[in-house]
Amino acid sequence: MSNNVEQVERTFVAVKPDAVKRGLVGEITKRFEDAGFKICGMKMVQATDQLLEQHYEEHVDKPFYEGLADYMKEGPIVGMVLEGVHAAENIRKIVGDTSAKDAHPSTIRGQYGHMSMDYADEAGRLYKNLVHASEPGEQEREIEIWFEEKELHDYQTAHEEETR
Ligand code: UDP
Ligand code: MG
Question: 4-159: which CATH topology?
């Protein structure tokens, strides 16, 4: 990591298959770049059962897991590692509540969706919410699942460089 300040950390974000299919990779990435987060790694990946079982280890036994795994395998995801101050907490603030219905319209999930989990359940639909972002404390574990060390990059942003 290019900064020794303790609060500067890396976190994992996945642009989920519904957002990739809707052409929102750029818009979503822009939200994080606009807030000043540094992209340290980025790649398109087709999720597998093995990756998802590790990634969602806290949810793997829950009733919604099978639908969640089907959703996450519907198409490729775009994984990224972002660096910044309190990155995990701040990025989840930008992403918004899990349910689009409850997410503030200024958040990604609130801006690009309106579905409620209850409606999706009753309608027998998969619940899709565009983005995953690590919870604080989970980010290093998740980065290791999705990225190899050589795929993560240390560089100075224009803002960090002393001279340009
Ligand atoms: N999810 C779902 N049904 C539920 C709860 C969660 O389909 O009842 C999915 C949803 O895609 C969510 C993911 O599982 O983003 C992980 O759930 P979590 O509670 O960790 O929400 P997040 O951290 O993504 O906001
Ligand atoms: Mg979660």
Answer: Alpha-Beta Plaits (3.30.70)
Closest ligand (CA of 96): 1
User: 163: pLDDT confidence band, cut at 50, 70 and 90?
Assistant: low
Cα 106 to Cα 94: distance, rounded to the nearest angstrom: 8
pTM of the model: 0.95
User: Is any ligand 1 atom within 6 A of the Cβ of residue 127?
Assistant: yes
Beta-bridge partners for 43: 79
Q: Where do we find the tokens 């806290």?
A: 58
Regarding the beta carbon of 117 and ligand 1, being less than 6 Å apart is answered yes
The full set of domain ranges for the chain reads: 4-159
Question: What spatial distance separates the first Cα and last Cα of the chain, rounded to whole Å?
Answer: 21
Helices (H), 35-138: 49-55, 65-72, 87-95, 108-111, 117-123
Ligand 1: which residue has its CA nearest to atom 17?
Answer: 98
